[in-house]
Amino acid sequence: MAENIVIISITKLSSQQTVAAQHLISKVHEHDQTFRDPYLSNRFNYFADMPAFFLALHGQELIGLLTLYADEDPSGSVDVTLNVVPAWRRQGVAKQLWQAARLVLRQYGYYEADFLAEKTFLKTAPDFLANTGLVADPVSEFQMTLKVNGHQEKDPDLNVTAMQAADIPALLPAYVDAFPDSNKEEAKHYLTENLQADGSFGYVCRYQGQMIGYCAVDFGEYDYLFGLFIAKNYRGRGLGSRFIVQLTQQLAAVRHHSFKLAVESDNPAAHHVYRKAAFKDEGEIFYLQAEQGPWYLEK
Predict the structure, then answer these.
(1) d(CA 99, CA 104)
(2) Are strands 78-84 and 113-118 parallel, antiparallel or unpaired?
(3) Which UniProt keywords apply (predicted)?
(4) CB atoms within 10 A of CB 237
(5) pLDDT (average), residues 131-157
(6) Is the pLDDT of residue 299 over 80?
(7) Which positions ≥6 away from 253 have C-beta within 8 Å?
(8) Does residue 266 sit within a domain?
């Protein structure tokens, strides 16, 4: 067990802590040949005052980071990411971080947690699942990436613009239909956050003047697309791919960044749409659960 390790918990990362976290994550990616970055904001968490970041410090050095993404109420599950500097692994750092996070989750009434792990990491650590008692959910998630090269002609039937507050009421029914696990209150929260947030924006797609789709974009070193949907009556007509192409072309012309997004393995239709828009698989993420042992979030 590592000594002289201090664990601190916070709701939001400072700019200095964000830089340190990004540096740690880069080290982990380089060592493990992974690609998925944890989300370094708590703005979608159900409880704004719940600590979402747990930092393991050795002196002034950040050697471990645990994040909690809890956008559902306590009846739902929390996504947990754990990153430890390779030189500090197998010294109990991850367990200390989880012990601190588990206390917080219990305090806020959460009893289900999913630990995220990439396929490449699991391949290089074949005993990891057996040693931890974690079990992979059969549904995984593909992270996809796109680098826009050149310029394509504007689609004459589509108009992609930044979302306005007046668009939200019309988007709500289609949002809930596209994401049946959400309700109107949660949908409104998501859409409003992307209207107000720094570094993240929502975009709407109109087809022949009719609003038919939505996508949020988180701006950073690369631009991350999420929450994308096409209204039910307009699916199956290739409009999703055309929307993505127009959106990424417009953003790339100004920002010159690459793009990333995630799609679940049991959603082949969406996977096909993103491939048609020239996205390629970059990595596969598994959601791991514990039914007993030190990683179990028991009631």
Answers:
(1) 9
(2) parallel
(3) Acyltransferase, Transferase
(4) 12
(5) 89
(6) no
(7) 151
(8) no
Question: What residues have CB less than 8 Å from 201, skipping those under 6 apart?
Answer: 162, 163, 194, 216, 217, 219
What kind and span of H or E run contains 146?
A: strand 141-146
For 213-229, the pLDDT digits (tens) are: 999 999 989 999 999 99
CA distance 285 to 114: 11
The amino acid occupying position 275 is: R
Q: What's the rounded Cα separation, in Å, for the pair 256 and 254?
A: 6
pTM, entire model? 0.91
Angle at 186 between CA 194 and CA 285, to 5 degrees: 75
Quote the DSSP letter at residue 174: H
Helix or strand holding residue 285 (H, E)? strand 280-290
- Rounded distance between C-alpha atoms, residue 121 and residue 128, angstroms: 9
How many residues are recorded in the chain?
A: 299
The pLDDT value given to residue 161: 95
Residue 215's beta-bridge partner residues? 203
Could you give the number of structural domains in the chain?
A: 2
Do 137 and 156 share a structural domain? Answer: no
Supply the range of the domain harboring residue 160: 148-257
Same domain, 40 and 87: yes
30's tokens: 């380089």
Nearest-angstrom CA–CA distance, 77 and 209 = 39
